[in-house]
Amino acid sequence: FLLCFHIDFLRGTRKVFEEGGTKPAFHLVIPAVIPVATVLLPPASLSLGAHVLAIRVFARTDHGGIRGHVRAGSAAELLRMDRRIDRYLLGTALILLGLSFYQFFFWIRRPQAREQLYLLLFVVTLSCFFLVWAPSMRLLLSPWVHWYRLFIAFGLLTSGFFCYAYRHIFGMEGNRFLAGMGVFFHALVPFGLFLPESKPSAEDEEAS
Question: Which pTM was predicted?
Answer without folding.
Answer: 0.64
